């Protein structure tokens, strides 16, 4: 029987005073005569383990929250110079430097849901379930054909097919990659490696798919004063 992969939800714990200052800073940016550049919406991922999300496009703006996990998907919705306005899976928005973003595609399993997402051995609703991903489990996206995506789980030897509509980090009508879809023989060979998997939650070994858990993904700007005299991007 397939077991469940779990992930801690994204936590954003803003500091009240900084939020009040942030609101004022955002208004100042909006009224400064400058405006963000419109650009086509697209997804990216975080390049570093710690990424400051600011209320405006510059280090002079306060930090609204800090992402604490490399690879999390974000949606780029606007630009201002070298800064990008991003939207997270919880719809929260802020600014990060473009150097902190990667074009590598990742996604979260149904962060809007309370129901687990099936990771299947083939692109079929009748295929065997390799694992069940609880909402917000992070996956790396290898390819998508507008119906199914081939994904794997960072740090764990498990791969499979997920319905594209169940992922946040790819658009429902988006085509990604393609070579992986022409390598099914190699894919099924890799899938065999998941037959015996270690449970990260319990530390036990059992036949069948993995059970996973993940660390905290984000926090408020706690410890901001420890960054030194030169603020982090």
Report the end-to-end length measured between terminal Cα atoms. Answer: 46 Å
Per CATH, the superfamily of the largest domain is SH3 Domains
Q: Just give the CATH class of the largest domain.
A: Mainly Beta
Largest sheet: 6 strands, antiparallel
How many structural domains in the coordinates? 2
Kindly estimate the percentage of residues that lie in beta strands according to DSSP: 35-45%
Give me the Rg, rounded.
Answer: 19 Å
Alpha-beta content class: mainly beta
Q: Please, how many helices?
A: 2
Give a count of the beta strands, DSSP E runs of length 2 or more: 19
Spatial shape = elongated
Low-confidence segments, given as residue ranges, are: 8-28, 180-215, 221-230
Q: Can you tell me the CATH architecture of the largest domain?
A: Roll
Order of SSEs, N→C? EHEEEEEEEEEEEEEEEHEEE
User: What is the CATH topology classification name of the largest domain?
Assistant: SH3 type barrels
Organism: Microvirga splendida
Pfam families: SH3_4 (PF06347)
Keywords: Signal
Protein name: SH3-like domain-containing protein
């Amino acid at each position: 029987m397939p077991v469940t992969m779990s992930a801690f939800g994204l936590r954003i714990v803003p500091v009240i005073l900084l939020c009040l200052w942030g609101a004022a800073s955002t208004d100042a940016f909006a009224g400064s005569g400058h405006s963000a550049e419109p650009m086509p919406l697209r997804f990216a991922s975080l390049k570093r383990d710690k990424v400051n999300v600011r209320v405006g496009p510059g280090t002079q703006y306060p930090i609204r929250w800090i992402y604490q996990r490399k690879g999390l998907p974000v949606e780029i919705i606007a630009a201002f110079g070298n800064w990008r306005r991003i939207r997270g899976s919880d719809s929260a928005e802020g600014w990060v430097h473009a150097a902190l973003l990667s074009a590598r595609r990742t996604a979260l399993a149904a962060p809007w849901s309370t129901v687990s997402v099936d990771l299947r051995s083939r692109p079929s609703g009748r295929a065997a379930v390799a694992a069940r991903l609880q909402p917000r489990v992070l996956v790396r996206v290898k390819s998508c054909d507008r119906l199914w995506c081939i994904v794997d789980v960072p740090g764990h030897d498990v791969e499979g097919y997920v319905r594209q509509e169940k992922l946040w980090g790819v658009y429902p009508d988006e085509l990604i990659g393609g070579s992986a879809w022409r390598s099914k023989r190699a894919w099924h060979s890799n899938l065999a490696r998941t037959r015996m998997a270690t449970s990260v939650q319990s530390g036990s070994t059992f036949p069948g798919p993995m059970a996973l858990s993940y660390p905290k993904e984000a926090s408020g700007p706690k410890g901001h004063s420890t960054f030194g005299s030169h603020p982090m991007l």
